[in-house]
Request: fold
Amino acid sequence: MPSFQTVRGMRDLLGEEALAFTGIIGKARETALLYGYKEVITPVVESFELLSAKSGEEIRQRMFIFKDLGERQVALRPEFTASIARLATTALKNEPKPLRLFSAGSVYRYDEPQKGRYREFYQSNFELMGSSRPEADAEIVLLTDSFMRSLCLRGYAFKIGHIGVVRGILSQENVDEKTQNAILQRMDKKEYNEAFKLAPTEHCRNMLEGLLQLKSDDCFETVEKIKAYVATDEIPKAAADNLGDILKLVVDGGCPIQVVEPAFARGLEYYTGMIFEIYIPELDIALGGGGRYDRLIELFGGEATPAVGCAHGIDRIALALQAQKNVLSTEGKKRVLVLAVNDLLKGEALKIAQALRLSGVGVEFEVMGRKMGKALEDADKRKVDYAVIVGERELKEGAVMLRNLAKREQTIVPIKELAKKFSF
Ligand code: AMP
Reply:
C-alpha cells in the first residue's frame, strides 16, 4: 500500500494546533453572542451558479468545481456570504430586520499554498442585513475589534476605505462594470500601473493616480483630503462623506482606526461601500476583512436589502497568536487520570470517573490494562496533572488516593470531596 499524504494545500490539524483553532472559533462565537448574532450552519457544497454570481473573477477561477452524480454543477464554498444571501432570500426572507448572522467553518480556494495561504482554511463570518446606516458598518468593524481584543492580539491595525470612491470616479467617466471590476482587481493586488492602464481616459487615469497621494498618518485628515479631492463629483463625494461618518462612529466606539486607504480595493466583486482589513505588524497578510454589499440580495432575487459583513481567517489568526507567543489560555483545565490498582476494581474506578465527569471534571480513564507503575509513568510523560488511584484499602473508607504527578505527592481524599479538588 502507498503511504498516503494529505492532498496539496490541505492540512491535518493536530494537538495544540487543533486546540488553537477551536479556541479561536470559540472566541468568535462569544463575540457573536455579545453582539446578538445568531449562528447558522450552511452546506459546504453549493450550486456553482450561486457561488460564482458575484464573487469576482479572482475567486471564480480558484473554486473547487465538480459535477455531482446527479449531473449538478456544484462547488465547495470559497466564502460564506453567498450562502447567507441565499438564506436571506429564502428561509429567512420574512425575518424582521436587521438580521444578524454568524457562521464558522471551512472554506476552499485553489490558492498557491504558502505560509498563511491554504486551499482549505477556516473563517468566522458575520453578516448584518437590513441597514444602510453607518452604525451598521461601524458595528462590523467594532465586533472585529472586540474579537481581536478577546484573543489578546497586540498591535493590530485596521485599514479602511470605501469602494464607492474608486467606483464613483469610474462611473462618472461611464466606465462599464466589467472594466471597473478588472481595474479594482488589479488595485487590490497593488498592481497600480496595470490597473490605471485600463482606465479609458486621461482624466480618469489622473484621478485614480491622484487618489494614491492622499494618504496621511492621520485617518481623519485622509478622509478630509479625499472629500476635498472629489468635492465636485457627486457619487465619489457621497462615498467619502459616508466613510467619514463611519470612521467617526468606529472611533467613538473605542476602536482606533489606524489607516485610511484612499485607493483601497478588495478581491470580492460584490462590495458597494465601506471596506476594511485587519493586520498585525508580525505578518504582511490580512487576518480578516469585510465590507458593505448592498446589491447582492437583490441579485439573488430577494427584496433590495442593504448589508454589511466580514470574515476572519482563523488559520492566520492562529499564526498571529503563534508569532506573538500567545497561547490561548486553558487555565483551570487540569488533566486527570482515573485508574484502578487491579482489574477487580475497574468497575468502581469507572463509577468514580463518571461521577467526576458529571460534575464537569474532564477525566481520562486507563484503558490500556497497564500496571500501576507503567500507567503513572506514561501519564507523567503526557503531562497529566493528577491521578486518582482507586485501591481496596481507601475504597473501604469511601476514599481514593489522589496523586499530584508533577509534585510526586499523594493524599487520601474522600470520594465525596474529590470533584471539589479540581474546581479551581
Ligand atoms: P475574504 O473572504 O477574501 O474577504 O478573506 C477573509 C480572510 O480569510 C482573509 O483576511 C484571510 O485572513 C483569510 N483567507 C483568505 N484566503 C485565504 C487562504 N487561501 N488561506 C488562509 N486564509 C485565507
